[in-house]
Design a protein that fits this description.
The chain has 4 helices and 6 strands; from the N terminus they run E-H-H-E-E-E-E-H-H-E. The chain is an alpha+beta fold. The strands form 2 sheets. It has a 4-stranded antiparallel β-sheet. A two-stranded antiparallel sheet has the order 3-4.
Length: 120
């Protein structure tokens, strides 16, 4: 089963990290990425641009309205994602728990549906 691991963090908190704390965080990321690549569980993933660059699109009464910035007024924002393929949800949660952002912020684990959407 494939799972989306959504990475949430707070840019202001991250900016307050010391150089050593940042180096440790990225060292942990590199280690986990290597492990997932070697185990064959990593499908893909990307870091995302700052949430302030996001565009929110809503269509109301057939009229698209676009606004700047993240959807919600929140300190923690979606920063990136991984897609992993593993045997169980428990394993996906284990991987998410090992990601350094889980120690400081949050990770979301969500199963990826087949294109038919039959899981709904």
């Amino acid at each position: 089963m494939k799972y989306l691991l959504a990475i949430y963090n707070n840019p202001a908190t991250y900016e307050a990290f010391s150089e050593q704390e940042r180096a440790e965080l990225f060292g942990d990321v590199d280690r986990i990425m290597k492990e997932l690549t070697e185990s064959g569980e990593l499908v893909g993933g990307q870091a995302l641009a700052d949430a302030s660059t996001a565009k929110i699109v809503r269509v109301r009464d057939g009229i698209p309205v676009t606004t700047d910035g993240p959807f919600a007024e929140a300190k923690e924002q979606l920063a990136g994602y991984l897609i992993v393929e593993c045997e169980s949800e428990e394993r996906a949660v284990e991987i998410a728990a090992s990601w350094p952002d889980a120690r400081h912020f949050a990770m979301e684990v969500r199963a990826i549906m087949h294109t038919s959407g039959s899981e709904m």
